[in-house]
Design a protein that fits this description.
- This protein has 212 residues and is mostly beta strands.
- The chain contains 3 helices and 12 strands, in the order H-E-E-E-E-E-E-E-E-H-H-E-E-E-E.
- The chain has helices at residues 7-10, 131-138, 142-149, and strands spanning 16-19, 22-36, 41-44, 61-74, 77-89, 97-100, 118-121, 125-130, 163-168, 173-179, 185-193, 199-205.
- Strands 1, 2, 4, 5, 6, 7, 11 and 12 form an 8-stranded antiparallel β-sheet that branches.
- The longest helix has 8 residues, at 131-138.
- It is globular.
Length: 212
């Protein structure tokens, strides 16, 4: 079947993993409110973006955005921190099941074993945002992108390195630009569903944590 990480097991505050002499400890960080004027969600590298939204949509509104950070230790000493996942919380209810977020022209059933639909990262960043936000960013020139999202020196702490901005004044649509785990690659987003069939969350997995 297609690749599904064990998000129920890994996105738990204080969860620890041991792999290859490295200890991973998971910590959540609330980034702030995300404004969704249309409720059409796009997962992408916002600095090298595309505007195709996922099939699954939510009611327009404002929702919390959360980063899950993996704190890596070697020999019981903190080594580095990486953003392991980015989570958009729609309702604060338990997730009963997960599906892979896909575009209208993507059929998850067609995937080979351990394959997935993901978005490409070329600038080491990722986001979950409204379609309006990403379409607006597409119209910005490089100088404006550079001034807003590319600091002269990137902080070592991945939460301190997160950059947020309102990109559409008419709707208040905003974006949070986060580091994409280990950097460039391809990353899938998953939709968590409540027991009564409502969307609870969207989670992009940056493939930092060992398999639970």
């Amino acid at each position: 079947m297609p690749y599904f990480p064990d998000l129920d097991a890994s996105l738990v505050e204080g969860r620890r993993f041991e792999f290859d002499d490295v200890t991973y400890v998971v910590e959540p960080f609330e980034l702030g409110p995300l404004v969704l004027p249309t409720g059409e969600i796009v997962g992408c590298d916002p600095l090298v973006s595309h505007t195709t939204p996922f099939v699954d949509t939510v009611e327009p509104g404002t929702y919390p955005l959360r980063a899950w950070v993996a704190v890596l230790h070697k020999d019981q000493v903190e080594w580095q921190r990486r953003i392991a996942a980015l989570q958009l919380v729609i309702v604060d209810e338990p997730v009963a099941s997960w599906t892979m977020a896909a575009h209208a022209d993507q059929d998850v059933a067609s995937l080979d074993e351990d394959s997935y639909f993901g978005y490409g990262v070329d600038a080491g960043t990722g986001t979950l945002a409204d379609r309006v936000t990403i379409e607006t960013l597409q119209s910005w020139d490089f100088d404006r992108i550079d001034e807003t999202f590319i600091p002269a020196q990137i902080p070592l702490d991945p939460i301190e390195a997160v950059i947020s901005a309102v990109v559409d004044e008419n709707t208040g649509a905003n974006v949070y630009v986060v580091g994409s785990g280990w950097g460039d690659g391809s990353y899938a987003t998953y939709v968590g569903w409540t027991a009564d069939g409502c969307i609870a969350t969207f989670v992009t997995d940056f493939q930092v944590l060992p398999d639970a």
